[in-house]
Amino acid sequence: MEKLYQKYSARCARQECCRQDLWQSMQRAGVSGADAEKVLDRLEDEGFVSAERYARAFALDKVRYDKWGRVKIRQALYLKRIDAAYIDAALAEIPEQEYREILGALLQKKQGQVKADTPYEERQKVARYVIGKGFEPHLVFEMLDLDEF
Questions:
Q1: What residues have CB less than 8 Å from 39, skipping those under 6 apart?
Q2: For the chain, which has fewer Cβ within 10 Å, the N-terminal or C-terminal residue?
């Protein structure tokens, strides 16, 4: 049990992990459910695992590096069984100006790549792409209408 704790505490010290990721890793390694729960509880008690901290780090990383929108980030965190309050708090911490700049850059880049017969078709293809990356449709169409990017 101590060996298992040391292995996973070292992993958590290197990178931010959530309880669900660690649980899946332990299950793949053949750790029993009871042992996994004990180790996870200890990791949480000692501050190695924090759903709130994980949600904040995950949200900022996904926006800045992977260019994900809030919708996709919310869904990913939900699938990792992060509490809704932590998800909301993490999404609220994303700087709005930076978020809009990333969205604008994606719109601009995609507009240069898309091939369409009409402006309407081009607009729809661009919008579909960024909405698929998790950006809110109302924000996408607002920026497309205003040519804010």
A1: 1, 4, 5, 8, 26, 31
A2: N
